[in-house]
Amino acid sequence: MRKALTLSGSIRTGSYNQMLQAHMDKRLFEAGFVVTHVDLSDYDMPIFNEDLEPDHVPETARTLADLIREHEIIFVATPEYNGSLPPLLVNTFAWLSRIPPSVFRGRTWGIGGVSSGKYGTVSALSHLRDTISKVGALVVPGMLGIGPASEAFDENGNPVEQSVNAKIDQMITAFKTIQIDRT
Ligand SMILES: Cc1cc2nc3c(=O)[nH]c(=O)nc-3n(C[C@H](O)[C@H](O)[C@H](O)COP(=O)(O)O)c2cc1C
């Protein structure tokens, strides 16, 4: 069975990005993937500082890196903070990028996000695509930016806009189609 992992860059109670993550869990499961739902509040890490290497790399970072390596599809839902990425994701990815072998290479990544602005994380998604591509991630095409958040989901947690659902369909198709060499 092909395995997918999802995570959210917001651990806020009532997070819209966690709603998107949960929706992607459902869509990936329906598409035949075994899905692992990661809650980053289970992987608390200190602010990255090179002085902590190599003796004080948090065990949570190693555990998360091992978990990611067991999966071939990774979906990240991100909020947009000040036109960029939230510190939780920046910090998590900084730690992960320092633990060989790379968790970014050899797997297929999808990104999306929900924000309160009508431009729906397009700026954060550009930063996210740029940074994880630079460290080797293959990121599927498309701009799954959703906003304004308060109007984005129905009472069952499904995106209301047809254009959003079409982009998710395209991402799921890409996940099913793309298989990269994981060696
Ligand atoms: C520090 C901070 C900066 C923010 N900057 C932006 C922004 O640049 N663009 C935007 O659309 N929303 C911005 N927001 C609003 C978030 O989009 C909103 O809080 C969203 O619900 C966060 O995602 P979450 O519900 O998953 O926690 C910001 C929120 C915070 C707390």
Detailed description of the structure:
There is one protein chain. This protein is of the alpha/beta class. The chain has a single domain, classed as Flavodoxin domain (Rossmann fold, 3-Layer(aba) Sandwich). It is built from five helices and six strands, in the order βαβαβαβαββα. Strands 1, 2, 3, 4, 5 and 6 form a six-stranded parallel β-sheet that branches. Helix 3 (87-97) links the parallel strand 3 and strand 4. The longest helix is centred in the last third of the chain and has 16 residues, at 162-177. The protein is globular, with a radius of gyration of 16 Å. The protein starts with a strand and ends in a 6-residue tail after the last helix. The protein binds flavin mononucleotide (FMN). Flavin mononucleotide (FMN) is lined by residues 10, 12, 15-17, 79-83, 114-117, 147, 149.
Condensed summary:
36% of the residues lie in helices and 15% in strands. By secondary structure, it is α/β, with parallel strands linked by helices.
